[in-house]
Design goal:
By secondary structure, this protein is α/β, with parallel strands linked by helices. The protein is about 45% helix and about 5% strand. Strand 3, helix 7 and strand 4 form a beta-alpha-beta unit.
Length: about 400
């Protein structure tokens, strides 16, 4: 029996728990040497004992025999399909979703390479990541690979995006932080948006690619606060608060500078960045446009109110602990999507129950949009027609 039954659901956020050596075969000897010298790589290597244990566990017949019955209980490296591609299609069956959009885990942030000064390695690691992700997802059409596209060097950005689409990527992931030397709305990046629009592939933002909280905020003279994950990353309530800030700034810039309008069929997704910020941000966009319209021709040229442009082109995933119903009531039915965050701990063991409890009282159209329709709209041509509403899942509704 699947975790989700009797309804059509697409999963807008799931993850590969990649191993520390996952990119080795995609890099040259020189690139690999420089890659292994990165602090971010050494941070991954510090978890090598966990990862090697996980490899051993997943080869054990007894461990594997219990995996199906623990599909929502085992998390991270213990979870079925966490890093073995041949196991992942069974995960989709057991979850009962029609498709999964899949992101990396430890490579979120591109190991800090975008702003390191070593742009050669920045783009080499991004391309290696994209090969790794598309190969992992190639075992099943329901697994939708995301590819990372740095924005630092415009020419290399265009080339990396083109290669990612050729590999079969179904979403182009960009950072929500601002590139060092130009705006994310720079007209030189128009070929990136044009390529994605023509391919019917969304532009995505994800937690991990945002500007981090200034660590000095933690220097409060009090004892350290326990980490959410039980480790030493010190992810706490304070560091949670600024997660969507960079995305709000970058999306605002893309809207005001006309990128959304120039590519009005292009969809954007803000994934695992929460959603409670969206209604107030939409109203702030409208307020800014109203206040500055007389002096800014770019605002006069917008095709609609900024909040309406958001509804037309942006989709977001609420966290399971947020009141998604409140977000939908205040931002519109077009905005929010379901996500499991499988196999991460943050996704919880029963996200459907948590989301259902806050969606109660909404029109059926809003509930259908949350669980499937908004995802189908965001993915466009990247989601094959027969996977949008699979007959066996639609018949079960």
């Amino acid at each position: 029996m699947a975790y989700i039954e009797g309804r059509l659901v697409h999963d807008a956020d799931s993850h590969l728990m990649e191993l520390y050596d996952c990119l080795d075969s995609y890099l040259t000897a020189d690139e690999l040497k420089r890659y292994r010298a990165l602090p971010g790589y050494n941070a991954k290597l510090s978890r090598a004992e966990w990862m090697d244990r996980a490899r051993k566990d997943h080869r054990d017949d007894g461990f594997r025999a219990e995996a199906d019955d623990n599909i929502m209980l085992r998390k991270n490296y213990d979870a079925k399909g966490a890093f073995i591609p041949e196991d992942r299609p069974r995960v989709v069956d057991l979850l009962g979703v029609a498709s999964q959009l899949i992101f990396t885990t430890h490579n979120l942030g591109n190991l800090g390479l975008d702003q390191s000064g070593d742009l050669d390695l920045c783009y080499s690691v991004a391309r290696a990541h994209n090969q790794m992700m598309t190969e992992f997802c190639a075992v099943d059409r329901r697994l939708l690979a995301t590819a990372y596209i740095p924005l630092e060097d415009i020419d290399r950005t265009i080339d990396t995006a083109r290669q990612a689409l050729d590999l079969g990527a179904k979403g182009l992931l960009i950072p929500s932080w601002c590139p060092q030397d130009h705006s994310p709305s720079h007209v030189g990046l128009d070929p990136l948006w044009a390529m994605a629009e023509e391919a019917g592939v969304p532009i995505l933002f994800h937690v991990g690619f945002e500007e981090k909280m200034n660590p000095v905020y933690k220097e409060n003279g009090l004892p350290p606060v326990p980490d959410f994950h039980g480790g030493d990353d010190n992810f706490t309530s304070i560091s949670y608060m600024p997660i969507p800030n960079s995305a709000m700034q970058t999306l605002s810039t893309l809207i005001f500078d006309g990128v959304f309008d120039r590519f009005s069929n292009l969809k954007f997704g803000a994934i695992e960045l929460g959603a409670s910020w969206v209604p107030g941000w939409m109203r702030s966009l409208d307020s800014a446009a109203h206040a500055f319209m007389r002096n800014e021709e770019r605002l006069q040229n917008l095709s609609a109110k900024p909040s309406e442009i958001v509804q037309r082109q942006l989709r977001v995933t609420p966290y399971p602990h947020e009141d998604a119903g409140w977000v939908i009531r205040n931002a519109g039915e077009q905005i929010c999507m379901f996500s499991s965050d499988y196999p991460h701990i943050e996704g919880g063991r029963n996200p459907i129950k948590r989301f259902d409890s806050v969606l109660e009282g909404l029109p059926q159209s809003a509930i259908d949009a949350f669980y499937a329709d908004n995802f189908i709209d965001m993915m466009g041509k990247a989601l094959p027609a027969d996977l949008k509403r699979p007959a066996h899942l639609v018949a079960a509704e």
